[in-house]
Amino acid sequence: MAWVVLVVSGVLESVWAIALGRSQGFTRLTPSVIFGVALVLSMAGLAYSLKSIPVGTGYAVWVGIGAVGTAVAGMVFLGESANVLRILSLLLVVAGVIGLKVFH
After folding, report:
1. Under a CB-based contact definition with an 8 Å cutoff, are residues 57 and 104 in contact?
2. Rounded to whole angstroms, how far apart are CA atoms 15 and 1?
3. What separation in angstroms does the CA of 94 have from each of 19, 33, 78?
4. Digit-coded pLDDT (tens) for 31-80
5. Which residue ranges run through the membrane (predicted)?
6. What is the mean pLDDT of residues 83-100?
């Protein structure tokens, strides 16, 4: 169960990161509220997961999911560049996250 919560928390990290960018310095209400809710839920899920997953592994997986999710969302929805080197770099992050889980 901790791993499922950790993955959901990592996805929520992407949500709050994107909402933070969209909030324009907390001047827009809806993205600011989404940021706050997603941030609290993401941190609570991470905290729950770290009760049974080692902190180094859990935090790295959480950050990896958030970083890859945010970068992919930027490429797909926000018009950020999606060149081969960026995609290869994201695949390396994914490989590292999988390695941390497998060799846990």
Report:
1. yes
2. 21
3. 23, 29, 21
4. 999 999 999 999 999 999 999 999 999 999 999 999 999 999 999 999 99
5. 33-50, 59-78, 84-103
6. 93
Backbone angles phi, psi at 27, to 5 degrees: -95, -10
Query: Minimal CA–CA distance to 2: which of 49, 35, 42?
Result: 49
Sign of CA dihedral 39, 36, 34, 21: negative
Entry pTM: 0.89
The whole-number pLDDT of residue 19 equals 97
Nearest CA among 3, 29, 12, 18 for reference residue 76: 18
How far, in Å, are 14, 15, 22, 89, 93 from residue 18 at the CA level? 6, 5, 6, 20, 19
Residue found by looking up tokens 């695949």 in the block: 91
* Residue 54 phi, psi dihedral angles, 5° rounding: -55, 140
